[in-house]
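Deliverable D5.2: sample structural annotation.
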Amino acid sequence: MNAFDYIIVGAGSAGCVMANRLSADGRSRVLLLEAGGTDQRFWVQVPIGYGKCFYDPRVNWMYRTEPEAALGGRSGYWPRGKLLGGSGAINAMVFVRGHPLDFDDWQAAGNPGWGWRDVLPYFQRLEDSEVRGECRGIGGPMSVSDIAGDAHPLCDAFLQAGAEAGLARNHDFNGASPEGIGYYQITVRNGRRVSTASAYLRPAIGRPNLYVKTDAHVTGIGFNGTRATHVTFARRGTLFAMSAAREIVLCAGAINTPQLLQLSGVGPAAHLQSLGIPVLRDSPAVGRHLQDHLCIDYLYRARVPSLNEALRPWHGKLRAGLKYLATRRGPLALSLNQAGGFVRSRSDLARPDLQLYFSPLSYTRAPKGTRPLMNPDPFPGFLLSAQPCRPASRGRVEIRSANPRDPPRIMPNSLDSVRDVDDLVHGARLLRALATTRSLSAVIAEEMHPGAHVQTREQIVEDIRERCSSVFHPVGTCRMGADPGDAVVDHRLRVHGIEALRIVDASIFPSITSGNTNAPVIMVAEKAADLVLEDAARS
């Protein structure tokens, strides 16, 4: 069969949701295409195994950005999921919705139906939360676990330090307000990672009207006039074409979705013409408005035990492994980002502008230009980290050739905005302030990076440029908005000027949310499924 009602490109965090919801009627024929393979791998399923997936080309696109002058000429490493579940199958599993005002901003930017009151029901629909509260969801597909009782004891020192520094305690970042510090919630159930592949796709995969093809690298979208009608994909050396009677839904993510549109003739006309690609629609915003969170880490040698001792030596790994196999608990069942929160660097701000992370483990990165070390340090240590919530810098993604196998150029334009530099300086100073509190200073033997010699603003900025890195939250490259000259999709996620083509992934974010982006992507997919089904019912 080569004709379907819906074709979904990309079985990541959004694509698996769409496959489940669009095939639920039992009648609509749905084809889900994924360039990668299965998520049924040991280190994908074990929560802490994401470190093992960080450089694994079998499950990871392993993208590199173009060198950035503002980062000392460094080329950033951007892992992206290439398997069922997408980046949500190899991420750190932190579940954060974002600030309610983030979504009110989306609506105010000309996107009706995307305010906080509109999206909250979809957040509630998707989750099955261990944390109870008025705006939490129970019984949804995604398990959200409270790790407070299992986190490393060093987290207590961080939380006490926050209290000493005047930071409020928050027991639920996904409650009425995310502001404050506390333990992160993660997408884990019974000691196993929960991605949308396990939560949405696996329960639906037996439906006779749902077809899933892995190892299917989509090479282009075909059109009849301005209507999207079919996709081509390469699988095991053979090129296939499949048609969609109703819609094609792109869920390939903030890097691959704009790449595929440009390969198919939808994008900035001058760039496409320079590569010999016929222009179907001049859409200048395709690939533009790239946003990402940048983070600065401060590494401390500890006076007390950390996770380094449990996860570096062979006997520690053996002990942790046996505990995990016997009980599905212990350090292997958790994320390394165990505590943190959302804080305001200045009292005059209306909402938090910094996200903090506390990891009771440390690793020293290799010299510039070489691959980072992912093994824990051979001494007790921990990481304090800060990232600005809403960066002002904007980058872009563009294809480098007409060959679908060539990775696109990723140009984040990091720290282009002076405000972003200032925000990271505020974050670095806050980390230092926390380290000098009674509770944290008592467990710190030495600040190893950047080190006590870095004190002035100029020195802090130089250190930020040398060491800051992505937290892997790229969004916005096919953003939602009313103006086709500055946005790619409308408020119903339909591609401007194209029929039967919709985008459902992080690329449609009008602006980046405050915090980790996986939960908002799943919310977008839940809402998008309703939009698709509503439009189908009208036709």
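Annotation notes: The chain has two domains: 1-143+191-292+395-411+473-539, 148-183+294-388+415-467. The chain has 15 helices and 25 strands.
The annotation will be released with the project's public dataset once the embargo ends.
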